[in-house]
Amino acid sequence: FCDYYLYGNNIFVIVRVGLVLYATNVTNTFYLNTYMNNKAELLRVINNLPYYATSTNTAVSILKFLSSHIN
Question: What does the alpha-carbon distance between residue 46 and residue 40 come to, in Å, rounded to a whole number?
């Protein structure tokens, strides 16, 4: 999905990408301004993310994203 969406569109003109990983804990992986001009590096980081086969805490992850990425 990310490969298609990022390379199929001129995403960095209109969209910023930020990411938090969440399971039991929530971790800021990168911020909205981290990969503003580097699609290849952004995809490399996304493709190498770990998968946590544990419980999820979606509500806390959304709140953490909003409080730490969008001021």
Answer: 10
